[in-house]
Write a structure and sequence with these properties.
Oligomer: single chain
Bound molecules: guanosine-5'-diphosphate, 6-O-phosphoryl inosine monophosphate, magnesium ion
Mean pLDDT: 97
Number of helices: 12
Radius of gyration: 21 Å
Distance between the termini: 23 Å
Number of strands: 20
Helix content: 25-40%
Shape: globular
Strand order of the largest sheet: 9-7-5-2-10-1-11-15-19-20
């Protein structure tokens, strides 16, 4: 077998959690490969909404193995809170969840530094989720990090304080006030909880399972346009969110990867700062935000909303090698007379299909208008029963991208989905 990869093609929040939960029955293993508690993956069943930050979205399926991979940065305080709020007892969860010994730890100092750096940037701030992601990956690349496997070391406490002292030393340059006491206590409780779970070299396990014919699904966080290399740098996250990140983030070679499922919303959203060519500042944007409940799952911030951006989607398909597309939230577009899709840009006065390198470029979207549909589509369960205009919209995207749309999500619930 090969490992399938599922990831976001826009700026995150495409509906990864919902889709991973919905297709988990087809897999034996669900493994997160990058990011950390900056992610907020929502899924809904039996009228209850769950939001996951670190834990893979296959966790609600008994009998499935979930893995937090080496590419993830893990905050023990967030982990503890998430485990406590999940529902199933810890004794049950330890059977379903395994953690890589190589996953880097987010230390309390990383969180404080994240806030201090953002505060210092003023108007140029990234709009980070302030979960310590940037500083944690910085320490990883600088070879200063503590990793999950280190929590069993006898000198762990000393190492922790050495790191904390170094972070405090950096913080002195930022005159930034903070209170760490309560957070640090929760962080250490998280360390104790982590010790109940299997913390192993997960790359051996995943490769063995692939060899044995088990079906593995790699779950991405954030989205392609937030990738540290290919996003609108510096307005990005600090990891590789693209399909290549699944190889480094889990220890699986490219030759062992299979389908790449790329998820995109029927329109676009972005939280935080950075370019967004199709952003709408009018009542249409407000309508998308309201109907789509576009408020951040992790921070509650209102998401910026705009029309679908095809050049950006094609770029994401290219760098990920997407083999199947998954469309989410077309139900939010019900009721529009016409729907706009950006098909190319005018960049600094010149027509182009490429995302610009510079964030200073003036990018004007060129739109094509397609007919809208009025029907509510959340109850629909078959492709043929969808309104004509929506089917045309989907075919238009397929023709433009050359990739089939194989799953259409028509609402937040697990059941609100159409497989083609
Ligand atoms: P993720 O980070 O990619 O997992 O996405 P989020 O969970 O942050 O944001 C997606 C939001 O849209 C969540 O509130 C989901 O419950 C919701 N959602 C997912 N799919 C659909 C859909 O097809 N229609 C509607 N209306 N909501 C959806
Ligand atoms: P999921 O997995 C949407 C954004 C932040 C900010 C930038 C950097 O739920 O799709 P960071 O905290 O990583 O330093 O923030 O990236 N961001 C996300 N936006 N969905 C996410 O995750 C995101 N994770 C980070 O808003 O602009
Ligand atoms: Mg999200």
């Amino acid at each position: 077998m090969r490992m399938d990869i599922l990831l976001g093609l826009q700026w995150g929040d495409e509906g990864k959690g919902k889709i991973v939960d919905a297709i988990s029955p087809e897999y034996d293993v669900i493994a997160r490969f990058q990011g950390g508690p900056n992610a907020g993956h929502s899924l809904e069943f039996n009228n209850v909404k769950h939001i996951l930050h670190l834990i893979p979205s296959g966790i609600f399926h008994p009998g499935k193995l979930n893995i937090i991979g080496n590419g993830v940065v893990l905050d023990p305080a967030v982990f503890r809170k998430e485990i406590e709020e999940l529902g199933p007892p810890v004794e049950e969860l330890v059977k379903r969840l395994i953690i890589s010994s190589r996953a880097n730890l987010i230390l309390p100092g990383h969180r404080i530094l994240d806030s201090a750096y953002e505060h210092h940037k003023g108007n140029l701030k990234i709009g980070s989720t302030l979960k310590g992601i940037g500083p944690a990956y910085t320490d990883k690349a600088a070879r200063n990090a503590l990793r999950t496997g280190d929590i069993f070391r006898k000198d762990f406490l000393k190492l922790y304080h050495d790191h904390m002292n170094e972070h405090l030393r950096i913080l002195k340059n930022y005159s930034f006030a903070y209170d760490n006491e309560e957070y640090e206590a929760g962080w250490f409780e998280g360390i104790e909880l982590l010790k109940k779970f299997r913390i192993i070299n997960t790359e051996y396990l995943i490769n063995k399972m692939i060899e044995e014919g088990k079906r593995v699904l790699a779950e991405g966080a954030q989205g392609t346009l937030l990738d540290i290399d290919f996003g609108s740098y510096p307005f990005v996250t600090s990891s590789n969110t693209i399909s290549a990140g699944a190889c480094t983030g889990l220890g699986v070679p490219p030759a062992r990867t299979g389908e790449v499922f790329g998820i995109f919303k029927a329109y676009c959203t972005r939280v935080g700062s950075g370019p967004f060519p199709t952003e709408l500042f009018d009542e249409t944007g407000e309508r998308l935000r309201k109907r789509g409940c576009e408020f951040g799952s992790t921070t509650g911030r209102p998401r910026r909303c705009g029309w679908l951006d095809l050049p950006a989607l094609k770029f994401a398909i290219m760098v990920n090698g997407v083999s199947r597309l998954i469309l989410t939230k077309p139900d939010v577009l019900s009721g529009f007379d016409a729907i706009k899709v950006c098909t190319s840009y005018i960049i600094d006065g010149i027509r182009s299909d490429e995302l610009p390198f510079s964030n200073d470029s003036v990018v004007e979207p060129v739109y094509q208008e397609l007919p809208g549909w009025q029907e509510e589509i959340s109850p629909v369960r078959g492709f043929k029963a969808l309104p004509d205009s929506l089917r045309k919209y989907i075919r238009f995207i397929e023709e433009e991208t050359g990739i089939p749309v194989t799953i259409i999500s028509v609402g937040p619930d697990r059941e609100e989905i159409i497989f083609r």
